[in-house]
Design brief:
alpha+beta, Butyryl-CoA Dehydrogenase, subunit A, domain 2, four-stranded antiparallel β-sheet, 9 helices, 10 strands, binds flavin-adenine dinucleotide
Length: 312
């Protein structure tokens, strides 16, 4: 029988990565986990420790100071971090989600400027797609980017943006052609502190997650900060999901593992009718069902990332 986080579908390199990240997370993040998970803003000490351990290098290609992007590695890191702290998982994932549009579609100067500081943790990344009136329906966004010489002028509002107020750089989607639907969206890198741009964090959620809103009021962004061609923004956003969507399932497995461990410990601690409740067969059935579902879920993301071999 294999012991978590081992798994017959992992190769030696992946098994080694999982164990190293889990050990780091338990030792370095564990003591801060409760405080971080209750924080409405990015927990800078957790973020710093992960940077020092080199985790953000896994979301950046080697030529820009990273270790290369492999979706299986991203999944494993998220699963291990999430088993200790949901906040740590989010901080790691957002470095990837907020930088992958630059990796996939930025020109060379943008990559040179914005990617190395993400790998080292000197920069904090965010992704601004969702708006009060458009979530799943990305093509329904109404934030506009009007070309004016060598700048674009952005106007609009984003909400539910992870790391809002804490990020140093944001990839933002806006309509350059409001009549063209999904084909009228473009993507831009907007730096924190740009005049006309305000990022407000600290929005309260039921989840352990730093989140907030972005406001653009005649915000002038250099045209050179556009990612890809005009109108390519929707495809750029969807490419992000190719890499990161599977990893959401992996993170959920990590949280499931934490829940199972809590349940097992409580079953061994709580006594009723003269014995530990874990000794009642009805409780054992439930714990066995949890463990079975968790193993099946892990198997499905491991298999999914094998099929997604081109992703790494
Ligand atoms: C913790 C958290 C972090 C987030 N971080 C970010 C971030 O960093 N950047 C960012 O841009 N956004 C972020 N979001 C926003 C997230 O991407 C949106 O919440 C998501 O896209 C859903 O949009 P919505 O909330 O507007 O729901 P809606 O799109 O309004 O959906 C409402 C309901 O309708 C259902 N629905 C929608 N369309 C269909 C359909 N075609 N068929 C059937 N059912 C449908 C949905 O499944 C859902 O149940 C975050 C959200 C959360 C909760």
């Amino acid at each position: 029988m294999l012991t978590w986080p081992d798994n017959a579908l992992l190769d030696d390199q992946q098994r080694d990565l999982a164990l190293r990240v889990l050990t780091f997370a338990r030792q370095e993040i564990g003591p801060l986990a409760r405080e971080a998970d209750e924080s409405l803003r990015l927990h800078h000490e957790v973020f710093r420790r992960m940077a020092e351990f080199g985790l953000y290098r896994h979301v950046i290609p080697e030529e820009y100071g990273g270790d290369g992007i492999a979706s299986a590695h991203i999944c494993l890191i998220r699963e291990m971090l999430a088993s200790v702290s949901a906040h740590a998982d989010t901080a790691f994932a957002m470095q990837g989600l907020g930088s992958y549009p630059i990796v996939s579609s930025g020109d060379e100067p943008l990559k040179q400027k914005y990617l190395p500081p993400i790998a080292t943790g000197q920069a904090v990344a965010a992704l601004g797609m969702t708006e009060p009136g458009a979530g799943s329906d990305v093509a329904g966004i109404t934030t506009t980017a009007r070309r004016d010489g060598d700048v674009y002028v952005l106007n609009g509002e984003k909400m539910f943006i992870s790391n809002a107020g804490d990020a140093t750089q944001y990839v933002v989607l806006a309509k350059t052609d409001p009549e063209a639907g999904a084909r009228g969206i473009s993507a831009f890198v907007v730096e924190a502190g740009t005049p006309g741009f305000e990022a407000v964090g600290g929005f309260e959620l039921l989840a352990a997650h730093p989140i907030g809103s972005l406001y653009f009021r005649d915000c002038r962004v250099p045209a050179d900060n556009r990612l890809g061609a005009e109108g390519e923004g929707f495809r750029i956003a969807m490419r992000n999901l190719d890499i990161y969507r599977t990893s959401v399932g992996a993170a959920a497995c990590g949280m499931g593992k934490a829940a199972l461990d809590e349940a097992l410990a409580y079953g061994d601690q709580r006594r009723a009718f003269g014995q530990h409740i874990a000794d009642f067969q009805a409780i054992q059935f439930r714990l066995a069902d949890m463990a079975t579902s968790l193993e099946a879920a892990r198997g499905s993301w491991c298999t999914a990332r094998r099929r997604n071999a081109t992703g790494g």
